[in-house]
Amino acid sequence: xxxxxxxxxxxxxxxxxxxxxxxxxxxxxxxxxxxxxxxxxxxxxxxxxxxxxxxxxxxxxxxxxxxxxxxxxxxxxxxxxxxxxxxxxxxxxx
Length: 94
Known about the structure:
This protein is an alpha+beta fold. Helices cover 44% and strands 22% of the residues. The protein has helices at residues 7-16, 36-53, 80-92, and strands at 21-23, 26-32, 58-62, 65-70. It has a 4-stranded antiparallel β-sheet with strand order 1-2-4-3, covered by helices on one side. The longest helix has 18 residues, at 36-53.
């Protein structure tokens, strides 16, 4: 079983992951894009990352906004796997 991340490790990760927050046992961020096509392109990139990591987000997309919530179901909270996923998502923004 995967264990949830320690509070110290979570706080350290949040310092480097600008825009991400910890809410109700999820690592969360809202992304706003110029238009629907940019948002959809980003969703496609994140989908490919999710498949590569074998870790899938809770997400929603409406027009130019994408909301992502990461948590590891087996742990019932955020794990290092979620932090790694968030880092990969940030790289996809470039």
